[in-house]
Amino acid sequence: MKKIAITNVTIFDGSGDDVFKGEVLVEGNRIVEVAHFPNKVSGTADQLIDGGGKFLMPGMTEAHTHFSWNDQPTLSAIQFMPPEEHILWCVDVARRYLDMGWTSAIGAAAAKPRLDIVLRNAIAAGQCVGPRYLAGSQEIATLGGLGDNTLPHLPFQELSFGHIVSGPEEVRKAARMFIKYGVDHLKINLSGEYIAGLSAELSPFSDEEIAMLTSEAKRNNKRVAAHARSDESVRQCIRHGIDIIFHASFANEETLDMLEANKERHFVAPAIGWLVRTSFNASEYGITPEIARQMGYPQELEAAAASLRQMHKRGIRILPGGDYGFAWMPHGTNANDLQYFVDYIGMTPTEALVSATRLGGEIMMRPHELGQVRPGFLADLVLVDGDPLQDLGILTEPARIALVMQDGVIRKGLQDASPRTAAIHVPASENPLLDKGVQEAVPA
């Protein structure tokens, strides 16, 4: 098997420990040795990569991915894209993620029933490149809930954003259909969404319907993920053992206690970037800050920041990603979440990177081989031109992602071996990622 040595790098190993200068030896698709300077990796490598002093870290995991969201400003524009063009779009976006250092991803729902599944299979077969991927279902939505955008005079489900159900038996049928198609997990919309004209604090599904979904998933060894902004929807996730909770904006103290008591079971991927960008950065697309306030997004951002800070203090696993793929937050800008984690949730830059790396290995169900730079782990590695611990924003700059290795294969080659001075950290009050409105919304 081919051996690749990466030398002269500063290593962030994903554990949360201090960075160190050193070298990494990859054999085949595995890391076989990590050496701390002045020690060197042993043996002879077939290929030597001089990192030029750059920052080496594990590949990141995007925990709330919608590859089929097509960078448009409406849900309808996503759904109405023809299926042939839509899968080609997904293939292109998957490459974009990999080039930005996202080597794994959780599919948080597809715009059409089989898009995630087809893309996952194509990546696994080597027909296209992209993150190692766990495929989600289309959003399972209740009649009149988020995802039901059928019209009274055109009541055709094929025109709807989600797969519409009403009652436990329709939930069972939907679950079995998506499991037949080959999903890794099922996605259910347990709350509303302001942009769809539904309160985020709405909880439209009955416990009987949710119990049917989770029982079918358990019977078939599948996980369940939920769009759950409201307090009650988060409680439903806990009561029914739903593995992945998206959003969790309005969780109150009692709900946080329940979540903490079950924190080994659940992951939270809050999509805080959606709240920030929609509140303050969507004016070009008709959602001015005033309109966003009328919709409820800045208020939800404030509530989410408060609840997520509490989750972080309680040791609940919070991971980056979510709802990128809209016009005001296009695919490829996902690493903005890491700075938002610092500014809104109170994480340190190190904790934010751990959430994207080590915790990513956990949500991918491969904690012993993904998300860290350690011997025996899969060789998913990213070389960054600059120090993300000083400026997380550099992870949003394509030119600063100097090299991406996935499964021991170099997917994005080293273009510039010369070191660049690490960017100076900009405090939240002066952060160029945040406009004035967002700065004022950052909780103290």
Automatic annotation (TrEMBL):
Pfam families: Amidohydro_1. Keywords: Hydrolase. It comes from the Bacteria. Gene3D superfamilies: Metal-dependent hydrolases (3.20.20.140), Urease, subunit C, domain 1 (2.30.40.10). Residues 55-410 form the Amidohydrolase-related domain. GO terms for molecular function: hydrolase activity, acting on carbon-nitrogen (but not peptide) bonds. InterPro entries: Amidohydro-rel (IPR006680), Metal-dep_hydrolase_composite (IPR011059), Metal_Hydrolase (IPR032466), Metallo-dep_Hydrolase (IPR051781), OTAase-like (IPR057744). This is Amidohydrolase family protein. It comes from Massilia litorea. The lineage of its organism: Bacteria, Pseudomonadati, Pseudomonadota, Betaproteobacteria, Burkholderiales.
